[in-house]
Design a protein that fits this description.
6-stranded mixed beta sheet; 33 strands; 10% helix
Length: 666
């Protein structure tokens, strides 16, 4: 998109992940090359890997032996009738379940908030309404609730905005193509306030969930919310600006993608494609030139620098260093400023899923969601105290950030990003730990980390101890990077890696890994998918993105990128078996409407409600056969969820419950 006039013919969503030139130009090996080497040495295994082969690779630390697997039943851990694949205007859930639209873009969050009127949007009203493009969803029980799974706080990210779906009159036809008009100050103000996050108190009565409008906990977090920089980067010169000479106070958060609930009941949220909000040129010879280039700053589809000087690099060259962090929000203290936890590193964060290690330290797994970038984990210095919440609130300010290096023999190593170790020295331009964290990507390059295929959610399973890495796709991978053992050049469908840390210790710096799934259509031999033979035509998927493990230790996978012209199905939520004879069996549980992405699945503690986020419904992509051009406000492929001619599509959070009660998926 041209950042001088903000016009665009309709391609993919403005801040989604296109097959652009990769930013990681290091010589580090790709995961594709390593997988190819491993499979080649193991005899070019075909189809789904046998459990015996898994055992040979992962070892006995976390996975069954072949004999154990043969003794187990092949019965799936999930018991529901699959949804049929398809692409249409509505959402669909498995038979026997109800899918309730709980919160929609524009819904009033407070007793004095105005009702949503798409023709009279203002920044002031949006600040009191549910934001746009909900992504991560997290649930924490209300303190002292009689039923922790029926009364709690919902935390929801609002990643980015789609003006062509939000505002009437934004799109016009030029030379037979639909283009967006220039943004106006008024439109910018509404879009800016639609970013950020929402905290909402919700309560379940019978089978229906409802917002508690008069709750003291309801809160919007936006680009104007004051936040604190904390950890090693706070107060250093590279984050100081004209507006903040202390380098400790930031206004707002941008492009929040996935997130997680911490063990002490706060939420973390990852700032992902923050580069898209900056424009302008750095002063000649500025020290941040290489740093920003590695992160594609500026790449300005929003061009907010035209409306607010801090997003113009020529006027405020350090502002971009104040984004790209993991933020932490205490939902039970609306007066507390969110904190940007710089110890976890700066890159395009997907999320930061956490687990408490056996020694009490907290481990967060982090993905840098770009082709050819890295998998990280962070281990706190301090230990979690379950009896003292206050003592845990700053645990994320001190610890060690690691980046993953995967070896062809099925082992992996976590390399510390610590100033002074190995190449992370003044000789390579690092003067402090703050420099290492601000330039975490370059530090990973120098350490020789393994280039991955878009690492997104990385989810530890507290029941089995294993960790699941969602790798969405990488169509930029070249033929010479793979061999016959792994025909995944131009990897369109992604895969899922399973990690077993050494001795089951999440603080370990070594372990073993295996591919759980290579995604795509198993009936197409060239794709090389590895779903089980029990997986039906409805059960396979491409582009794994978000993931969650329920209280029973079962894996649920949400997708981003399926469509009628890609896989013949919409995105959705799939239940994936990881144990026993049913391992690699997948079943479709819920699917979204035309053009939508499924995000942020999470469960109540007793697994009786699943919350999901339906993002950018109606954003159909170019040249759909049924419509001839991309959908926009006046010409939509769906008007989900309201289905009213005077209403646009509205990203929404959906609550899924079992008819008559009971646990989801059983």
């Amino acid at each position: 998109m041209r950042d001088d006039d903000y016009e665009s013919t309709f391609g993919a969503s403005m801040l989604e992940h296109e097959d652009a030139e990769p930013r990681n130009l290091s010589d580090n090996p790709t995961m594709g090359e390593l997988i190819s080497q491993r499979f080649s040495r193991r005899g070019l295994l075909k189809g789904a890997l046998a459990v015996s082969a898994i055992s040979a690779t992962i070892g006995t630390v976390a996975l069954e032996t072949a004999a154990q697997a043969q003794a187990q039943s092949a019965k799936s851990a999930f018991d529901f009738k699959e949804v049929e694949i398809g692409v249409d205007a509505d959402h669909h859930v498995a038979e026997g379940y109800d899918a309730q639209v709980l919160l929609r873009w524009g819904d009033p969050l407070f007793a004095d908030a105005p009702e949503f009127d798409p023709t009279k949007q203002t920044a002031r009203s949006q600040a009191k309404q549910f934001g746009y493009n909900n992504d991560f969803v997290g649930y924490v029980p209300m303190q002292g609730a009689a039923d922790p799974s029926a009364h709690g706080l919902l935390f929801v990210n609002h990643e980015y905005t789609n003006p062509h779906l939000m505002f009437p009159g934004v799109v016009e036809m030029k030379d037979g193509k639909a283009v967006m008009k220039n943004a106006t100050p008024e439109r910018f103000a509404v879009e800016a306030m639609a970013h950020g996050a929402t905290v909402a108190e919700i309560r379940k009565t019978g089978s229906q969930w409802a917002l508690v409008k008069d709750s003291k906990y309801n809160r919007r977090i936006t680009v104007t919310t004051e936040m604190q920089l904390s950890g090693p980067v706070a107060g250093t010169d590279r984050v100081k600006t004209a507006a903040d000479a202390t380098g400790r106070k930031v206004l707002g958060t941008l492009n929040n993608c996935s997130g997680a609930l911490t063990p002490w009941g706060t939420f973390v949220s990852g700032e992902e494609n923050f580069h898209g909000y900056f424009s302008g040129k750095l002063p000649e010879g500025h020290r941040e030139e290489a740093n920003y280039k590695r992160l594609a700053v500026p790449s300005s589809p929003y061009a907010w620098g035209r409306f607010e000087e801090r997003f113009d690099l020529a006027k405020e060259p350090n502002e971009a260093n104040r984004f790209g962090w993991v933020i932490e929000v205490d939902p039970f203290d609306p007066s507390a400023a969110p904190k940007k936890r710089t110890a976890l590193g700066r890159f395009k964060h997907e999320g930061a899923d956490m687990i408490v290690a056996r020694d009490g330290r907290v481990v967060a797994y982090l993905g840098d969601d770009e082709r050819f970038d890295y998998v990280y984990k962070f281990v706190t210095t301090g230990r979690f105290d379950p009896k003292n919440r206050a003592a845990n609130l700053d645990l994320l300010d001190s610890g060690t950030l690691y980046v993953a290096k995967f070896a062809a023999d099925g082992t992996h190593e976590w390399l510390p990003l610590v100033f002074g170790l190995g190449p992370l020295t003044a000789a390579n331009g690092f003067q402090s730990q703050a420099d290492v964290l601000i330039e975490a990507r370059r530090a990973g390059d120098l350490l020789g980390a393994t280039k991955m295929d878009r690492p997104e959610d990385i989810t530890p399973n507290p029941v089995t101890g294993r960790v699941y890495v969602m790798l969405t796709n990488n169509t930029s991978r070249k033929d010479e990077q793979v061999d016959a053992a792994n025909p995944r050049a131009k990897n369109a469908f992604g895969h899922i890696i399973e990690i077993a840390e050494a001795d089951g210790d999440h603080t370990a710096t070594k372990g073993r890994w295996e591919i759980l799934l290579k995604c795509g259509d198993p009936s197409v031999a060239e794709v090389g998918a590895s779903f089980s033979t029990e997986t039906t035509k409805n059960g396979w998927f491409g582009m794994p993105d978000n993931a969650v493990v329920d209280s029973a230790g079962r894996l649920w996978v949400a997708t981003d990128g399926n469509g009628i012209d890609v896989t013949g199905r919409t995105d959705g939520l799939w239940a994936v078996d990881t144990e026993g004879g049913a391992r690699r069996t997948s079943k479709l549980f819920y699917r979204v409407p035309h053009g939508a992405e499924l995000c942020g699945p999470c469960f109540t503690p007793d697994d009786t409600t699943a919350f999901v986020a339906v993002q950018h419904p109606g954003d159909d992509g170019p040249d759909w056969p049924a419509f001839g051009r991309r959908s926009y406000y006046e010409d939509l492929s769906t008007r989900w969820p309201d289905f009213k001619p005077d209403m646009p599509v509205r990203p929404s959070v959906v609550a899924i419950t079992k008819r008559g009660g009971g646990k989801i998926g059983v």
